[in-house]
Specification:
- By secondary structure, the chain is an alpha+beta fold.
- The protein folds into 2 domains: 284 residues, 3-Layer(bba) Sandwich (FAD/NAD(P)-binding domain), CATH 3.50.50; 157 residues, Elongation Factor Tu (Ef-tu), domain 3, CATH 2.40.30.
- 33% of the residues lie in helices and 17% in strands.
- The protein has 13 helices and 17 strands.
- It has a 6-stranded mixed β-sheet, with helices on one face. Strands 10-11-12-13-9-14 form a 6-stranded antiparallel β-sheet.
- A hairpin with a 2-residue loop joins strand 16 and strand 17.
- The protein is globular.
- The chain starts with a strand and ends with a helix.
Amino acid sequence: MTKTLHIVGGGMAGSEAAWQAANMGVAVVIHEMRPKVKTFAHRTGDLAEMVCSNSFRSDDSEQNAVGLLHWEMRAANGLIMQTADRHRLPAGGALAVDRDPFAAAVTAALRDHPRVHIEYNEITALPEGGHWIFATGPLTSAGLGQAIAAETGSDALAFFDAIAPIVYFDSIDMSQAWMQSRYDKGETEAERTAYLNCPMDRDQYEAFIDALLVADKTQFHEGETAGYFDGCLPIEVMAERGRETLRFGPMKPVGLTNPHRPDEKPYAVVQLRRDNALGTLYNIVGFQTKMKYGAQTEVLRMIPGLENAQFARLGGIHRNTFLNSPTLLDNQMRLRSRPNIRFAGQITGVEGYVESSAMGLLAGRMAAAEILGQPLAPPPQDSAMGALIHHITGGAEAKTFQPMNVNFGLFRPVDGLKGGRRGRKDRYKAYTDRAKEAWKTWLEQSVLDATQTV
């Protein structure tokens, strides 16, 4: 028991934590409640199932903090990035994957690992002894959520996360829509045509906004509040913030030319991104929604090209539980009141597949190093992972703590560089160059330490 690492939750974070710990020589047991205990968002019992977007966002490791996280995870032999690369789909400068084969491959890799055992059972209490990582994500079960709340002495914090609809490609009218990435971004023709675009003129856009504002929406239960994460706002909430909000957000028309009407600039554009390798499914980018199903079909079919759309999945909304990590976790991601327990993934207050996986990678390595008798220092703050873990375990203001994506605002400034928009390119490159050196040094030292211990 004392030499085994138990991981509760087989999502992105739990899967990555298991992979890292097992490869360091530690026996791992993954406890996954699905498919015995289901959630409204999951469809399968596979590990690392993607329930929202199929995108890991930007893959640019020189100018984007998310792309830098990709680079750091690849350098650390990350399972999630390895598998994503093998199942990637054209998505311009982003890393998008064929979600079902991706999850199946992650499951197979862990099932076949000689040091990993998967148990399909629900954990509803915090253990007194042993080494544990809780990576139960935004859909932590009610029983476990209550146990965590009882231990931490405070109510669980929550916001609402919305899921975007998925459309069957063969139901889209391509006489109105066209394929193009913004600014034709990408090195191959597939990348330059990775997005499907549906244009709107001003009248169509105004009518669409009107329909969004009056559509029937999911009602919250008594006592719940709608504290949305700004990076994943439902479209109708954006519309309520101003009629032009969507046109400057997911429906911005910049960098696109309609080949059907090349002399007319669209007033707004709805983009869809391929969701599977066959190209039979497309998800509507940035269109998370809490509209009721009937309202969704009516409103979304107002989009030119989607008048006869058939939906493989409609949007949904769920409660997303996370810890006030700055007050509850130490810099080893351990629960201060029970240091035999670590937390990883979205429940720690990071947002997104990539960030969740990265926190799983760190928790797995830290837990394994502790079991092997060679505690591992947190990664340097100048790395992307270091900036993120520093933020959630002490850098953020506890009173106003909210889930955070990785971004360059979490990085320490580089001396001598110009601020503002004009200096941004040089500044971002300096951040990523510095981060890569810091990360490589930390990885080399951690491998050396682990080798000496073994």
